[in-house]
Amino acid sequence: MKARTCWEAVCTVDDLVADSGIAVWTEDGPVAVFYLPHRLPALFAISHTDPFSGSNVLARGITGDINGEPVVASPLYKQHFSLRTGVCLEDDSTRVKVYPVLLDGDRIRLEVPVNQAASVAA
């Protein structure tokens, strides 16, 4: 059975900074949203948690391009994570969660799992 999801509004276009990321809080925890205006698609969302350190820092990483792949370099240990797939380029056995993201008017929405406990209690 597929987990239930919802499209959660997490920020507005005005909150975004070109060629960098911002951290947002979702039902699924901290997420890093990246805006790369020179690419299509221009919006990417991955987990904000660096899997090597356990720290919430990926939104503060440096964005770039490695062989055509949009990436963010972790500010701690410098591993590069694909913004499309979440795979670590230096260790393909490690990855971060990737979230579908869309622009809805001036709002940025992420598809996140619905908290099953909260929906049962409601």
Order of helices and strands: EEEEEEEEEH
Largest sheet: 3 strands, antiparallel
Question: What coarse outline follows from CA principal-axis ratios?
Answer: globular
Average pLDDT: 93
Please characterize this protein's 3D structure.
With 122 residues, this protein is mainly beta. It is 5% helix and 42% strand. The strands form three sheets. It has a three-stranded antiparallel sheet, with no helix packed on it. Strand 2 (20-26) and strand 3 form a beta hairpin. The radius of gyration is 14 Å and the shape is globular. It starts with a strand and ends with a helix. The relative contact order is 0.24. The model is unreliable at 118-122 (pLDDT under 50). Keywords: Nitrate assimilation, Oxidoreductase. It comes from Marinobacter alkaliphilus. This is Nitrite reductase small subunit NirD. Residues 7-110 form the Rieske-like [2Fe-2S] domain. InterPro entries: NirD (IPR017881), Rieske-like_NirD (IPR012748), Rieske_2Fe-2S_sf (IPR036922).
